[in-house]
Design goal:
Elements lengths: L12 H14 L12 H8 L3 H13 L6
């Protein structure tokens, strides 16, 4: 699964992560039932803090885009 983070296009890194996941869903790279990477693995792979990934995941759960 490929999730691309555009660090220049969003106002914050949290928004960039959420937008990257939304784009992967829209492009069908993330399909229903697919698992997102763990917070630690995703943060390490993208060189982000864990709190940034937690906040992005939480926002997507609140918006009903992903299920925790």
């Amino acid at each position: 699964m490929e999730i691309t983070i555009d660090r220049d296009g969003a106002a914050t890194l949290t928004e960039a992560v959420a937008e990257g996941i939304e784009a992967a869903i829209a492009a069908r790279r993330l399909t229903p039932g697919a698992r997102l990477p763990s917070i630690r693995r995703f943060a390490a792979a993208q060189r982000l803090s864990k709190s940034t990934v937690v906040e992005a995941y939480d926002r997507l759960v609140a918006a009903g885009r992903i299920v925790s």
